[in-house]
Amino acid sequence: MYIAMNRFKVKPEEQEAFTRRWLERDVLLKTVPGFVAFHLLRGPVGEDHVLYASHTVWRSEEDFQEWTRSEQFRTAHAGAGSGKPLTVGPPQFEGFSVFQEVLA
Questions:
Q1: Number of domains making up the chain
Q2: From CA 104, how far away is CA 88, in angstroms rounded?
Q3: CATH number at residue 73
Q4: Domain for residue 71, yes or no?
Q5: The domain containing residue 37 runs over which residues?
Q6: pLDDT tens track for 14-64
Q7: Handedness of CA 45, 83, 22, 62 (dihedral sign)
Q8: Is beta strand 35-45 parallel, antiparallel or unpaired with respect to 2-10?
């Protein structure tokens, strides 16, 4: 299993626009082999930002890499970076290989 995360430092006054952008977009992940789950997370509030993270779970790192080369990925990210900046800087990517999983 592989977990891919992007961390976003969202300007406090742009939280509504940021979440609306995510909630109103087409979700193409369900059409990609190896996709398991997606979460959009809201985290701590800093002086100049609120931390958000997109969190996707994949069957394998290879499945994630295939997603990043797919037409669905290009379509999903076609408008990224356009329009009014909602974040303090670009997103920060973090990828993790799962070596232990504990389920209920």
A1: 1
A2: 37
A3: 3.30.70.100
A4: yes
A5: 2-97
A6: 999 999 988 987 788 989 999 999 999 999 999 999 999 999 999 999 999
A7: negative
A8: unpaired
